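Sequence in, structure out. Go.
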Amino acid sequence: MTIEALTTPKVFISYSWSNDDYQQWVIDLAKRLVHDGVEVKIDKWDLIEGHDKYVFMEQMVRADEIDKVLMLCDEKYQSRANAREGGVGDETQIISSNIYGSTQQEKFIPIVTERDQGGQSFLPSYLASRIYIDLSNDEIFEDGYEQLLRSIYKVPLHQKPQLGKMPSFLSERQVDHLKTSAIIRRMESLIDKHPNRLKSLSYDFTEKFVEALSELSIQMKEGSILDELVYEKIEASIPLRDDFTSMLRLLCDAEVLESDFIVDFFEKIFVFTEFREVGRFYESQFDHYKFLVNELYLHTSMILLEKKQYQVFAEIVNAEYYFDTTTYSGRGAQSIGSFRFYLYSLEERNKRLGLSKISLQAETIFTRAGKYGKAITETDLILYYISKTQNLDRGTWYPNSYIYFKHSTPIKFLSRLKSNRHFDAIKDIFSVSSAGEIKEKFNGIQYDRGYGSSFESIPTIQEFINPEVIATTL
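Output:
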């Protein structure tokens, strides 16, 4: 919302001549206001011999040119206002009639300049219910003075935002993610003042995310083209993916992200990759879920690397995952290789539509990444190198998007391994404790050929770091 601030506001100060020190305090306040661009009308400057003080007061209170009337409330001001005594009493009669009359009430600003021993303000009875500005002691003076300036200039600290447009997701034919997006907004409102509450909300997010995933299930009908349905569901999952990555970034920024949450999340959503009911089904009927699980793991890893959450990243890539599915139940712990899927439906779509893509799955991952495309391809390769050094019999991560990686581009995460400090920060990711161990692992990697239809092979880790120079500099 655009605020139209006053250029040269004009104020009148109403106060009591309590004592010499107080009068000097009032004059100092007036001088500071003038220094800050406020034209001040006050009896010490503007009421001279021969003037009618009652007329002067009435003019100051009623004049349209006076933007604000500042009522400085100390003990004597309160007593005189309540008793209608002296100059303050005269002003009180004029001001009170205006406050309860037609004049805009915000023109009159009560300012507490003194409190009693019990901490009560000396507000006249007719101002007792009014919102005031507190300048009663040095500790709060500066905050109160800023509040006063903002009121005079009509530039409030908290401004009403401009009315926005209807959220696009209300009109888009995508999965209903109102519940997950609502949690994101709640987390955003708490991140500064109550960051620890984000952890409990993150588990609420998982619950709502799983509920929303159920809406993406494919029901086969006569005449349906399975690869078309899968691709539609992949596109429909974008809001959920974006909600998850937003939530993950908030947890990172609040420094409350834990690997247990990520492991739990992926174990819960992995069950969607397999048939869980009774009856007939097509294996590719769950390819959209497989695509999303793979994509989410990629984005999770990318964000952790971007935020330098190396310890959390180390814990999730080396974690043991337990999946409650027909295929994996009873097979024990699984590694990150389990998040590698070959999607027959997308390859069928590639052929059916004559798209001639080396991998439609890879292109879809890369295209959907948008501005994060480069980071996604780098993360894909990093996960591949990590899995190749794990020496497990449970499969390795396959870098689908490597064909979109530019070979002349360094991967800084790997190139900086020559720094001993960087090596110490990331060594747990590769489950090593010394430079010698990681050199041995890197030199022992057996690489895959890559896509047979591509001229490009999967790049070796030596393209980014010579194992012999690891941890040789500061």
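Check: The two ends are 51 Å apart (CA to CA). Residues 287-306 form the longest helix (20 residues).
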